[in-house]
Amino acid sequence: MKLIDRVKRQRGKCRHSSNPTPPKIDFTVLNAPLSVVFQFIDTKALVSRVSHCNKQFHSVSKNANAWLYSKCLVNIQSMDRFECPLEHLPMLRRLNLFNRDYTPPTNLNFLAKDLEFVPQLNALELISFYSHLQDNLENSYYTGFNSLIQNLKVLPVLHTLDLVGVVDDTGCVLLAVSLKHCPLLTYLNLRKNKISSHGCRVLAKNLKYIPELLILNLNMNGIGDMGCCSLAENLQFIPLLHTLVLWQNDIGEVGCRSLAKHLKHVAHLSILYLGHNRISDAGSTALADALQFLPRLCILHLDRTDMGEVGCRALAENFKYIPELHTLTLSGNHIENAGCYALAANLKFISRLEQLELSENWISKLGRFALTQNIHLLPQLKSFQL
Question: Which of 56, 80, 104 is the last residue of a domain?
Answer without folding.
Answer: 80
